[in-house]
Write a structure and sequence with these properties.
Blueprint: H1 2-35, H2 44-52, H3 57-92, H4 99-102, H5 104-119, H6 123-144, H7 152-176, H8 179-189, H9 198-217, H10 219-226, H11 229-234, H12 239-261, H13 267-278, H14 286-306, H15 315-336
Helix pairs in contact: 1-3, 1-14, 3-9, 3-10, 3-12, 3-13, 3-14, 5-6, 5-7, 5-8, 5-12, 6-7, 6-12, 9-12, 13-14, 14-15
Membrane topology: Multi-pass membrane protein
Subcellular location: Cell membrane
Keywords: Cell membrane, Membrane, Transmembrane, Transmembrane helix, Transport
């Protein structure tokens, strides 16, 4: 009896130590994101003055208006992408079943392009267009993948096909609209947190938090669906209705994030799997996925801001570079299985 108890204690200690290291790293990253840079704070005295409100007006604006709003945007959007990826990977029961692969973010991009072409660069029309475009692509995938039920592998294959079709349509549309609209779409499609302000992120935050709350309420149904449609139906769950509601929540989270910043890859693909390994759990955790998604996007944005001297890259370029490497690893691992 002593050996199993010691093994469980050792495993618990390792898990707590890992989580503690991640929390410490997150706090250091947040601190660096706010205060890193000679133009803001060159010593701890400057940091203390910023915290206590004794810094110059310029320093306060840079930290609390520009950097803090950008940091908050990365946290809330990263959490939305992480939960969206967790929902779809749970429904598909495959780590490749994220909005990046199945093309829902491409559908959201299509919706924004059409909104820009018809209504111009109007923020809330872009948000609505992203949601409708994401839902449209999800409906197409759901319809074409249905064959007496849904197979995770079939959903992924159909999603890739729909994504390729919508990508071709987006390129055609970009060539037919006005030059100004095409340039706006090109800048937006890179996926960037540049120019994020409190005024821009707070209204969308309300919608994202509401969708996150709904996803948590549906967490039990999601875990039952992971056990298989027959098992979930035997336990009294309406399989198709639950799947459609979860798909709506996941697509809406992806679409909102896409409408605010442009398409950002990798986060929804990697966050659920990293969270599952950190928690030593076979099931996908929504809360863990949200926290890891927020951490990944904050880290990627820090690299985008400070990784290259005198230039700030769109965070989407950083995430897609990391995501390409991770996707190759994931495909190889899944192929071995």
């Amino acid at each position: 009896m002593i050996l199993p108890i010691r093994q469980r204690s050792s495993s618990l200690f390792k898990n707590n130590f890992t989580v503690s290291c991640v929390v410490l790293f997150s706090l250091l990253l947040i601190f660096a994101t706010l205060f890193f840079g000679k133009q803001v704070a060159s010593s701890f005295d400057d940091v203390w003055q910023l915290i206590t409100g004794q810094a110059t007006h310029y320093q306060s604006i840079v930290v609390w208006q520009w950097r803090a709003s950008r940091l908050f945007s990365a946290i809330i959007i990263g959490a939305a992408l992480g939960v969206s990826g967790a929902v779809f990977q749970s429904l598909v029961r495959n780590p490749l079943g994220s909005p990046d692969i199945t093309g829902f973010n491409v559908g959201a991009f299509t919706g924004v392009l059409i909104s820009l072409a018809v209504f111009g660069n109007v923020y809330w029309f872009s948000v609505l267009g992203a949601i409708l475009g994401g839902l449209f692509s999800a409906i197409l995938v759901y319809i074409f993948a249905y064959r007496d039920g849904h197979s995770g592998f079939r959903l992924i294959i159909v999603g890739i096909a729909i994504s390729a079709t919508l990508t071709a349509f987006n390129q055609w549309l970009s060539l037919t609209v006005s030059l100004e609209t095409a340039m706006t779409a090109a800048l937006w499609s890179a996926g960037s947190l540049n120019g994020m302000t409190w005024l821009r992120i707070l209204p969308a935050t309300t919608l994202i938090i509401a969708l996150l709350a709904v996803s948590l309420l549906l967490n039990t149904r999601m875990k039952l669906l992971e056990m298989g449609d027959d098992t979930a139906a035997a336990l009294g769950i309406s399989v198709n209705k639950s799947r459609l509601v979860l798909m709506f929540v996941g697509v809406s989270l992806t679409a909102l994030a896409t409408a605010i910043t442009g398409p950002i890859s990798f986060i929804s693909l990697a966050a659920p799997q990293i969270a599952r390994r950190l928690q030593k759990d076979q099931n996908i955790s929504l809360i863990g996925s949200a926290l890891v998604g927020a951490l990944l996007l904050v880290l990627a944005d820090f690299i985008a801001q400070h990784g290259w001297e005198n230039s700030t890259l769109p965070v989407g370029l950083v995430t897609i570079s990391l995501g390409g490497v991770y996707l190759v690893y994931l495909i190889i691992r899944e192929g071995k299985k």
